[in-house]
Design brief:
Blueprint (H helix, E strand, L loop, with lengths): L23 H15 L4 E3 H12 L1 H13 L12 H12 L3 E6 L2 E6 L1 H12 L4 H10 L4 H10 L2
Antiparallel strand pairs: 1-3, 2-3
Helix pairs in contact: 1-2, 1-4, 1-5, 1-6, 2-3
Length: about 160
């Protein structure tokens, strides 16, 4: 090849896969299923949501919690990670009419609206997010007091 010949190179940008846990539809499903299946009284504080979110996305945290749940003791600290994307999803769910803000004296809580309940029901009927629904059943109901106890007792 002589130095006078040109070499043509073409670059094409390919779409980048977004991890499943960062896809908005999946996270909305996780938030709504969390409130529906894992929260007592059908409402949740942000602390509860972050705790349950950590149970869904972090297998090590989930195994520590399950150990605590059955033994009421954990040799390690149960500290959920705060996920800023969860806050965005909650805000989006409120804007989409899936969640509503509940005014309580002890702080901010959210609860499912009728549209949110229908969303969870349609996820079940269409057999979508079955892994999230199965995890929610495994985790069970978690009250605000249980979240406090799990975080305090683990210390």
């Amino acid at each position: 090849m002589s130095p006078l010949e040109k070499i043509e190179i073409e670059f094409n940008q390919r779409p980048v896969d977004v991890p499943a846990d960062l896809r908005l539809y999946r996270r909305l499903a996780m938030v709504c299923i969390s409130v529906s299946e894992c929260c007592r009284a059908g409402s949740a504080s942000f602390k509860q949501l972050h705790f349950i979110n950590s149970l869904f996305i972090n297998e090590d945290f989930r195994s520590l919690y399950m150990e605590f749940k059955f033994a009421r003791f954990s040799p390690r600290i149960l500290a959920p990670s705060a996920d800023p994307y969860l806050n965005r999803c909650v805000n989006y769910a409120i804007g989409a009419g899936l969640l509503d803000q509940k005014d309580v004296q002890r702080g901010f809580k959210v609860e499912l609206t009728e549209k949110g309940k229908d969303f969870v029901k349609s996820l079940r009927n269409d057999q979508l997010a079955l892994d999230v629904i199965a995890l929610a059943k495994e985790i069970g109901k978690i009250s605000e007091n249980e979240v406090q106890a799990a975080m305090r007792e683990g210390l």
